[in-house]
Amino acid sequence: MKTQVLETRIDILVPQDLQAEEALLLEKARQACATAYAPYSHFQVGAAVLLADGTIVTGSNQENAAFPSGMCAERTALFSAVANYPDVPVRAIAIAAFTDGNFTEKPVSPCGACRQVMLGIEERSGDAVRVLLYGTEGIYRVGSVRTLLPLQFGEESLGSRS
Which of 65, 74, 123, 129 suits 112 as a labelling partner, its CA being 20 to 30 A distant? Predict the structure, then answer.
């Protein structure tokens, strides 16, 4: 038997530790929470995507009474970014969540479907996509989507497609 150990490096920051562009991106994610449509969960999520040219695209979760028909904030922002700026790589994504009248204390991590989409976008550009997760008690910074999705299903999983 062999054992493989997977490690995840997450920087835990306070606002003063952030670079200026990271602080702005997190602010845009927090603002995007206000545009969420979450009448069922009352859990408003905002995401902001930073493109290589400095453009920021935001998105928020959009619920539907037929629950699978809704969309997460991360995918809303990412799909909008790549649809409107198809040739501009994504450099970072920031995510914040608001519920019960406050932002969450602990950072909220993207669901598995969003992580898979984020990985595809990271692979598409060939560069790491930095991930910032906001919480009032701390901010997580992850250097690459791959860190959030160990043993990922990516391009190499598809094998030869000749």
Answer: 65
